[in-house]
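So, who can interpret the following?
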Amino acid sequence: MCHSRPLSACSIGATWLLITLAMTAAVVAEPPIHNSAAEHRNGAVERIEAFVDRYCMDCHNAADTVSDLDLETTLLAEVRWAEATKTPTTDPRATWETVLRRIASRQMPPLDAERPDESEYRAVVQQLGHTLDHVARQNPVIPPTDSLRRLTRTEYQNSVRDLLGLELDITTWLPKDESSGGFDNITVGDLSASLMNRYLSAAEKISRIAVGRFTHTPMGLNVRLPADLTQEKHVAGLPLGTRGGTNIHHTFAETGEYEIAVRLTRDRDEMIEGLSRPHDLDVLVDRQKQHRWTIEPPKRGRDDTLIDANLKVRIPITAGPHDIAVTFVSQGESLLEIKRQPFLAAYNRHRHPRQQPALLEVSIVGPFADADPAATETSTPTIETPSRQRIFTAWPESSSLPDQQVAAQQILGEIARVAFRRDVTPADLATPLAFVDEVLRGESTDSWESRFELGIERGLAAILVNPNFLFHVEQPVQSDASEPVIRISDWELASRLAAFLWSSLPDDELLDLAAADQLSDPAVLRGQVTRMLSDERSQSLVDHFAAQWLYLRNLDGITPNLRQFPDFDENLRMAMRRETELLFTHVLQHDASVMGLIDSDFTYLNERLARHYRIPGVLGDEFRQVTLSPDWHRGGLLRHGSILSVTSYSTRTSPTVRGNWVLENIIGNAPPPPPPDIPALQEKSTLTATSLRERLAMHRENESCASCHDLIDPIGFALDHYDALGQYREYDGENPIDASGVLPDGTEVGGVSDLEASLLAHPEMFVGCLSEKMMTFALGRLVDYRDAPAIREIVRKAKIDDYRISSIIQGIVASEPFQYRSTQSSALLTEH
């Protein structure tokens, strides 16, 4: 039972004064505060006191600590203790940041209690936020980083691309990264022996491909197409007049002949699918046709197993990056193919076999011989690939050992400077140059040019396994230990910028500014952020940040029930993801308001996705911007098939999963996880209740469930007009859809439009959530209450600029958490 208790002399107002005193005691005293400023601050404290006394103390007092929150005694005791010892073990700001978050989202007080009006809400949110911000300014604290962060697999791949000019898929070379806080760049870890071996192997492969010496060692690549990829239509990026197939971007280490082999899909009787008439199959290199097979059905009584066994051809290919395409020549009758039902290719394998042949696998093996008969084991490549141009910026003036050593030092020094994200020392180059020297001094019948290139290859591999490359390293900075935070160096600022905006390494311009100690100049820094956002490498914010924030990577794991959703296939999976990526890309490239992610009158569609959404007039596999009609029920993120699919089960929607996703990723105030002893929602086969709403109502009869579900479910039900694959519907089976509910602020909603309107009415919630997610990604660590003042400052400044995405990104880069680090951080790497 709740008790209304009068506040003692040590009131909440006194508590706040003590907090301020406790937090400022350990730092140099400020100049005297003018009376007007002090009076204003005291007035704000009194208003906070009155609000808490009226709306919070009934449940959060010494006698009744609902949710283990005592705003009367516990917090006051902590502040008194902090004042006495000057070293609080529990920062009271953590509690009050939680209180502020709950009040700002209108989750508290609960709907069945006395609640303030909107003007009171806005006033106390502003006053409490300003008070916390003032305390933070007096005692700046940044959460410590206690471990090294290893490059993610994406960062490693991008770094190799930008360092060496190599486009490689290294997903099979390195293990998948674990995620924390929704992002995989918040990694910790030692380098185990097995993982180090993976990095050594990757470094050897990369350095060999980059240098491109002739070794005549065949390498293989197999590309298997998803079983449910429909191949009846034109594939984007392939020539017009073709259908199906695939395009493979691959970097060839050497010039020579490569064998390309193709396998076709088969039905459950191991017969080639759809081969009822002859079909032409083309092989193209960089969009130029190199070979054509005519595939004919076997004669009566003949086995067809040898048909694709003979689909092999050897093609001369030069070293460097190339696009290898294998695709069928389109036949006019194939236009009828798209009308067959069901659409799903995987489902068709068992009930409706394909009416045309399709690719199952493409393999590339080689080189088997040099295209240039004069090329020998000891010759240098005649083709200067982008990676060789990037590496060999110097060449020995003669075959003498000193000249080769000078050239090697220049080559590896330039590479190491970018790889290590700073100027290098002789100690940094000692190991790579030792590998070079070992090769140059060794006995060999090869030419000196070949030995020199082998030495560079070995030295490059040594750089690629150096901890200064594999880890985000921030060197110790000399500073007074009494300072709570220290500014990072310009080198470290360049590294943080590149990791945030490019998921890669700093380029020469960033490194040159860092070397001159100019990067941290605010005007210079803003200009560099603008430049980096206009660079194509900022696409990593879409591929690496947005894909994790919005759960787009989870699309690969959804498995809709094929009997309920027979139209689902790989084409639809990819199209749904692409729609969301393109909307975020639009906001990024046009520097638009991020509120356009919530409410948009256009989207991006191709024919496959438009058919799924029942939107007419969109033909072809290419995505294009489509202006939306209200009758189509499409718009911002909450109406995207990608979001709606990853927040559903395989057989049905889940208001709880969807509501929780919105709270966590849009509003930024996720509820705590359910207690371990709470039973799961029972399916309707075990209940008399027929609708999902009725079953959830029964679930909420458990008092432990009600508090969270009252918050989550109304948001999820607002999206219930969209099924488990995001198709709009009016009925769930025989039950009419009921999307009504009451939001935490008391707003009644009848569907997604009302939910979007509520978010637009309180833009600071979504912008604050996005800023928090983006700051987490930018810092490579979880943010907490100590970062909250910086996030509020970012939102305030972004509001002036209509919440443009660049204002949020610029705010993060200019923030104290981004440009400073805690002196509590553990010692980082100093030996290499």
About this structure: The longest strand covers residues 242-252. Residues 12-138 form one domain.
